[in-house]
Amino acid sequence: MSSAAVKRIKKKIPERLAEIRGDRSQRRFARELGVFQQNINRYENGTTPHTDFLITLSIKENISIDWLLFGKGRMRKGR
């Protein structure tokens, strides 16, 4: 996979994170996930999320990692 393809994939992650957060504030969302609000802000502004965050998000929000990273399948697992 080319570096351009990786950049295109990574560019969509902030949009998907914002979609998961919905109308919750970044502060509330962060509190529910057990992270700092600044992390949510950075991730929604393009910083690549850490693996621990992605795993936590997937478990607590029932999110498919395939959907989050690649936009494939359904957002929620098992639905």
CATH architecture: Orthogonal Bundle
Give the oligomeric state of the chains in this entry, treating copies of one chain as homo and distinct chains as hetero. single chain
Approximately what portion of the residues adopt beta-strand conformation? under 5%
Question: How would a textbook summarize the main sheet?
Answer: none
Full CATH superfamily name: lambda repressor-like DNA-binding domains
What sort of overall outline do the alpha carbons produce when their principal axes are compared?
globular
Mean pLDDT: 94
Write down the CATH class: Mainly Alpha
Contiguous helical run count: 5
Find the structural class using helix and strand composition: mainly alpha
CATH topology: 434 Repressor (Amino-terminal Domain)
Please give the domain count: 1
Number of strands: 0
Low-confidence stretches: none
Percent of residues in helical segments? 55-70%
CA-atom Rg in angstroms: 12 Å
Element string (H = helix, E = strand): HHHHH
Straight-line distance between termini:
30 Å
Verbal overview:
The chain is mainly alpha-helical and 79 residues long. It has a single domain (3-70), classed as lambda repressor-like DNA-binding domains (434 Repressor (Amino-terminal Domain)). Helix content is 66%, strand content 0%. It is built from 5 helices and no strands. It has helices at residues 3-21, 26-33, 37-44, 51-61, 65-70. The radius of gyration is 12 Å and the shape is globular.
